[in-house]
Structures are given as structure tokens and as C-alpha cells.
Design brief:
alpha/beta, Urease, subunit C, domain 1, TIM Barrel, nine-stranded parallel sheet, seven-stranded mixed sheet, 15 helices, globular, binds guanine, binds zinc ion
């Protein structure tokens, strides 16, 4: 009997690559699924139903339409767990380290997001850039203005995209057009949570920028918002730059270290994302572990702003959960491939060669696990959302030339991350829809 339901299903054909668990080393073949001539079947709402050899899938579903991606890889979409929506036009701002860079370029640019039309225009550009770089899920800072994050949520919802975001909370040490008093921030944030948390694939993150721009009263507001909305995330910055740390401890003199400030206000949990986490003391590493918080590496930003080198090996040895992100616009690229390349170099500078399985795991299943969303994203398996990308490892002349010598999938991944960029992303599917082609 003909299965007419099959007509509502779609098959993608290509080389399937998806992690099953964290790789132990570069030869850990058990850590991933790789099917040379594979197929993925998903339904009309973009839920993956089957992942298998193409021939087996085809014989079970002879009527389903097929998109054939030939020898290209089909992988889970990249997940970017830390970036700044109002900083797209701050990328490539010359000659400053963190605190000067914020004052000179970032705060003035973020002040423009009081204007709804500017937010709308920028939201489209921002999400277009993420998507064309294969990023199908994002965790983003807005500006202090509620309209910034509301506009971004609305644009993400239109695209059926998984977006975690929050209006940034700041009430001191910045120009007054990017400050909002604590009580007002509390009321405005509550309204945004009510409207957007769980609306489509949108989720809210309480977003105190960092301790320097937060009075103790604003920290209390962050604490209340996080405590009253337990399914929301919390995102902030930690120990990125030595001058930042000095200033922070001057503003909070009763605290023994940077992280103890966030701990005092109960901001640490398994839903807490701590961007940068570079210059950590032993006590801070212990506290991150005890609270199951996530240390987020931002390699292109750390090199560009001269902030320091993320101690991946030490954190991994201490069983700290880590994640990787672009940190646009302190970061210099929307490309997760460029980001992985710089992460490799950051580790090389410390005498450690990050293996390409670990890097690709980081950008997909690792980041999904850091967000507690590995039942939805970061992996190609039945029940998950068909957020996936098509990667062409021969997308430039040098890549195709180098690929002639490639013998293993691990080597191919390393070529992709070292030489690849936006041009390697041939297709991007969000909940089963090819949004890059559109
Ligand atoms: N620390 C506080 N705000 C920021 C920001 O916007 N970017 C970076 N890289 N660090 C920060
Ligand atoms: Zn940041």
C-alpha cells in the first residue's frame, strides 16, 4: 500500500556527521556517527524521524522528496552561546583593549538601539549573518533597551530559530543613554519574560552585563529575576581582562575574587553562562565546578582585544563545563569555523593541540549540552529538530587542493576549521527549512 504520509516527509542525502558523545581523543571513533552515503528523514514540522544509510531510508520511504547534497557533509547546525546583537557595526574597531573599547566604540553604538527602526534593520542583518555562517542557535545580548531584544525575538520567531536572549542590565559606569535604573529594569524585564520566554523557540536570559556596570541594587534585581524565573538562563562576563578585574574588585571591595560577587547574588547555576573566564583563581574554578556553571571561550575576541588565553586544558582537567562562541563584536567573525581555528591557535600558544573532533563537538553537541538543550539541537537523531548545515570541504581553491591529500574525517574537519569560512556553508536548515538557499 502506498504511504501517502511519506509525501509530507523530506529526505536529505549526503555524508552524515554528528557526535554521539564527547570525544576522548582524535581516534575516538565511537564518539560520532558517520555515514558515507547517508540520509536524514524529517517531517513537515522539521522533526528528525530517521537517520540511516540512504538506501535503507529510501526503500522504507519511496515517495518522500529528496534533496541530494552529493559528497557534502550534513552536520548539526552550529550553536553560538555568546554574542552581542547590538555590536554588528562594532566589529573591527581599532586600537583598544576591553574597557577603552567599551567606552570608545561599544556603548555609543549600543545607544542607537533605542530606535525601533534601527533595531529592526539590525535584527535582520544580525540573524542573516548568523545563518549564512551556519549558526542555527544563538545566545545573544541585546542593548539596555527592551525594544532591542523584543525586535530580535520577533525576527528569530519569524525564522523559527532557537534564540536565547536578554536586554542587558546596566546602571552605572557608562553614558546615561545606555543605563536603566534597577527598579525600571526589573519591571521591563519581567514584561519581556512574560511575552517572550517560551514563545516559539525563544527563551530569555537574565543579562547583567558585568559587575563594573552593575550597582549592588542591580545585582539584587538580577538575583530576583533569575530566582523568580527558574527556567530562564543567566549570561554575563567574567575575568576577561586584568584592568577589568582590578576595577571590579575596587568597586566590590568586600569580595575575595570576581566570581564571589556573582555567587553572593546567587547568579551561579547550570543555566549560567560566564563569557571569557580567562584569568581565574583556583577558588573560582572550584566555584564554577560546584555550581555547574559554564565557562564560555571567545577566542577571536580574546585575541583581538588582547585579553588573554583561555585555559581549556586546565578547565577540562577540573571537569568544568565549557562552551565556545563568536562574541561578536569583540569577536572578529560570525564564522564558527574561523572561531574554531582561532581556538586551536589559542591552545597552541599554551603548548596544547586541540583536536578537531573536540572542536566540532564543542560547536555542536558540546554547546547544546552546555545549554541543556541536547534533546533538541546539536545532534542528528530522531526526535531532535532538523537544524542542520551542509558543509563543503572543497569550497575554495586551496581547500579542494588540500582535500586531495585528505585521508580521514578528522583530517577533513581540521581542513574545514583551518581554511573554511562562510563559503563552506552550502546550506542551512532551520526546523527542516533551507533558509540559506532562500
Ligand atoms: N564585558 C562587558 N561587556 C562586554 C562586551 O560587550 N564585550 C566583551 N568582549 N566583554 C565585555
Ligand atoms: Zn560578550
Amino acid at each position: 500500500m502506498e504511504n501517502f504520509l511519506d509525501l509530507n516527509m523530506n529526505i536529505l542525502k549526503g555524508r552524515i556527521f554528528s557526535f554521539l558523545k564527547r570525544p576522548e581523543d582524535i581516534s575516538d571513533l565511537e564518539s560520532f556517527l558517520y555515514i558515507e552515503d547517508g540520509g536524514i528523514l524529517f517531517d513537515e514540522i522539521g522533526i528528525i524521524k530517521e537517520v540511516d544509510e540512504y538506501s535503507a531510508l529510501r526503500s522504507r520511504h519511496p515517495n518522500s522528496p529528496i534533496s541530494d547534497f552529493g559528497s557534502n557533509l550534513i552536520c548539526p547546525g552550529f550553536i553560538d552561546v555568546h554574542n552581542h546583537f547590538p555590536q554588528t557595526q562594532v566589529i573591527a574597531s581599532y586600537g583598544a583593549q576591553l574597557l577603552d573599547w567599551l567606552n570608545k566604540y561599544t556603548f555609543p553604538n549600543e545607544s542607537l538601539f533605542i530606535d525601533e527602526n534601527h533595531c529592526k534593520k539590525e535584527a535582520k542583518v544580525f540573524l542573516d549573518l548568523l545563518i549564512s555562517n551556519g549558526i542555527t542557535s544563538s545566545v545573544s545580548f541585546g542593548s539596555v533597551h527592551p525594544i532591542s531584544v523584543e525586535t530580535l525575538f520577533a525576527e528569530a520567531k519569524k525564522r523559527n530559530m532557537n534564540l536565547i536572549a536578554g536586554n542587558v542590565l546596566m546602571d552605572r559606569n557608562a553614558p546615561k543613554d545606555v543605563l536603566i535604573p534597577p527598579k525600571e529594569s526589573y519591571e521591563k524585564s519581567k514584561k519581556i519574560i512574560e511575552k517572550w520566554h517560551g514563545n516559539g523557540r525563544c527563551k530569555y536570559a537574565v543579562t547583567p552585563r558585568f559587575a563594573i556596570t552593575s550597582t549592588p541594587e542591580l545585582m539584587e534585581v538580577s538575583q530576583s529575576l533569575f530566582d523568580e524565573n527558574k527556567s530562564c538562563y543567566l549570561q554575563t562576563h567574567l575575568s576577561e581582562n586584568l584592568d577589568e578585574i582590578k576595577t571590579t574588585l575596587r568597586l566590590y571591595p568586600d569580595n575575595k575574587n570576581y566570581l564571589s560577587i556573582y555567587d553572593k547574588y546567587k547568579l551561579l547555576s547550570d543555566k549560567t553562562l560566564l563569557a571569557h573566564s580567562i584569568h581565574l583563581e583556583t577558588d573560582e574554578i572550584e566555584k564554577i565546578k560546584d555550581t555547574n556553571s559554564v565557562a564560555v571561550h571567545c577566542p577571536t575576541s580574546n585575541l583581538f582585544l588582547g585579553s588573554g588565553l583561555f585555559k581549556f586544558e586546565e578547565l577540562s582537567r577540573n571537569n568544568i563545563k565549557t562552551a565556545i562562541s563568536t562574541d561578536v563584536g569583540g569577536g572578529t567573525s560570525f564564522s564558527m569555523l574561523r572561531t574554531l581555528d582561532e581556538a586551536y591557535k589559542v591552545q597552541q600558544l599554551q603548548g596544547f593541540s586541540l583536536n578537531p573532533l573536540e572542536s566540532f563537538y564543542w560547536a555542536t553537541l558540546g554547546n547544546a549540552r552546555a545549554l541543556g538543550l541536547d534533546n533538541e539541537i546539536g545532534i542528528l537523531k530522531p526526535g531532535c529538530v532538523a537544524d542542520l548545515i551542509i558543509l563543503n570541504s572543497s569550497s575554495t581553491k586551496i581547500m579542494s587542493h588540500r582535500m586531495e591529500k585528505c585521508k580521514t574525517i578528522q583530517e577533513e574537519l581540521f581542513i574545514l576549521q583551518t581554511l573554511g569560512d562562510e563559503r563552506a556553508i552550502e546550506g542551512v536548515f532551520i526546523a527542516g527549512e533551507n533558509v540559506k538557499a532562500a
